[in-house]
Design goal:
Helix content: 25-40%
Strand order of the largest sheet: 4-19-10-3-9-7-8
Radius of gyration: 21 Å
Strand content: 15-25%
CATH class of the largest domain: Alpha Beta
CATH topology of the largest domain: Alkaline Phosphatase, subunit A
Number of strands: 19
Shape: globular
CATH superfamily of the largest domain: Alkaline Phosphatase, subunit A
Length: about 425
């Protein structure tokens, strides 16, 4: 098939070869730069010599769910509706995970292509993202697949489009908190291409290593050497590949290794009284052992009928807080959905994280100094592709959710 599809107001050309978008979770650009400097990425080096080596901005909050959904929809949270991993559902007033497809407000690019007859696969590290990323895929028809590395042993053809995945990929079931979880995702994508005809793949890894290890460290370099070997398989299978990240990752600890945290709830309670304001941390998800639910972005909901200005004044005076924005400001600046955004949005300063109250955070899993994300300082991410950068793109404000656009729409030689 040829021609284009329109998805969320953007046109995408039909893939001329298998197209693969890889989301490297937590990939601060320095990780790749350090691995390249160490000579660990020969395939990536060769790819970038003829392809695109760009820097882009992720969406704020710089968390997993909002950015993965931005990448697969080609749009910001104001369009797709996913503005955190965790939020207060305005319909119920309850704090819930934002991983149910009912919260998604538009179609994804993979689903649109599948609906048009393309063979599409989505592979994610953690199962929390599978239903959102696979929303709209007609699974069970033999032409689509959507599964997670975390639950690969439970995959069925009816629910995931594939079964017997451990045998198919040729790897054992990985631990959730491991490099092997991401390795499984990339190996599964390569294996799909090596054994079948696919038009479009989306592969999303885990940031476990990035939360634990700084750029250039042995553990980080091992991750990107693994990535490079997987990239070689994808390219050898005939794919065009674009790589980006959902967010960066920065150190959030002091010289003694202790976490740098501004606990917001006690500040508000002391100044305004208990229950005057409620702190929500959208980084919260089922996998908090490696970051303790400490990130660079927080939402504050004030008591119904109360003005948010007093709470804003309290938080702006706190050391370690960089910005406090009213809902309207935050939504306009970051393209967030107003009905799912707090009365206030709080952003941490460099090297800082935001917490609720000390007793609400289990930091027992922090066996290395804290590294985290969520604010403005983790917004720069790589945007790399095996195809050249489009003419006239110098100085463009690239976003990570331009990945499918870059992959599918960039002119090839001979066009």
């Amino acid at each position: 098939m040829s021609g284009t599809l329109s998805v969320n107001g953007r046109a995408y050309a039909w893939p001329r070869r298998p197209g693969v978008v890889v989301c490297l979770d937590g990939c601060e650009p320095a990780y790749i730069e350090q691995a390249r400097a160490a000579g660990l990425t020969p395939c990536l080096d060769a790819m970038l010599a003829r392809g695109a080596d760009l820097r882009a901005r992720c969406v704020i909050p710089s968390f997993t769910n909002p950015n993965n959904l931005s990448i697969v929809t080609g749009a910001p949270p104001a369009v797709h509706g996913i503005c955190g991993n965790f939020f207060i559902d305005p319909a119920t007033g309850r704090e819930v995970m934002m991983n149910d497809p009912k919260y998604l407000r538009c179609e994804t690019i993979p689903a649109a292509f599948a609906r048009a007859g393309a063979r599409v696969a989505v592979v994610t590290a953690k199962d929390k993202l599978r239903l959102l990323l696979g929303c709209g895929l007609p699974l069970g028809n033999g032409r689509t697949a959507c599964f997670s590395a975390e639950k690969a042993h439970l995959a069925t053809r009816a629910e995931n489009g594939r079964d017997h995945l451990l045998d198919f990929v040729g790897l054992p079931l990985p631990e959730v908190y491991s490099l092997e979880l991401s390795a499984f995702v990339l190996a599964a994508g390569a294996r799909l291409l090596e054994t079948g005809q696919w038009d479009l793949l989306y592969l999303s890894t885990s940031d476990y290593v990035q939360h634990k290890a700084a750029p250039g460290s042995p553990a980080a370099n091992a991750f990107y050497a693994m990535m490079d070997r997987a990239l070689a398989r994808l390219l050898a299978a005939g794919a065009d590949v674009a790589l980006t990240a959902d967010h960066g990752m920065k150190a959030k600890h002091g010289a003694d290794g202790s976490p740098c945290v501004v606990y917001l709830q006690p500040l508000l309670d002391r100044a305004l009284g208990p229950d005057a304001a409620r702190v929500i941390l959208p980084i919260t998800d089922p996998y908090v052992a490696h970051h303790g639910a400490l990130g660079g972005y927080a939402a504050v909901h004030v008591r119904k009928g109360a003005a948010p200005a007093p709470a804003a004044a309290v938080l702006r005076a706190a050391a370690g807080v960089e910005e406090v924005l009213f809902r309207e400001e935050a939504c306009a600046r970051f393209a967030l959905p107003p009905d799912r955004t707090g009365d206030l949005v709080v952003l941490a300063g460099p090297g800082q994280t935001l917490g609720s109250a000390p007793e609400r955070h289990d930091l027992s899993g922090l066996d290395v100094p804290l590294r985290s994300h969520g604010g403005l300082h983790e917004q720069t991410v790589p945007l790399l592709a095996s195809i050249p950068c489009p003419p006239g793109s110098a100085g463009r404000d690239w976003r990570n959710f331009d990945a499918f656009h870059l992959l599918l729409n960039a002119p090839r030689s001979g066009d």
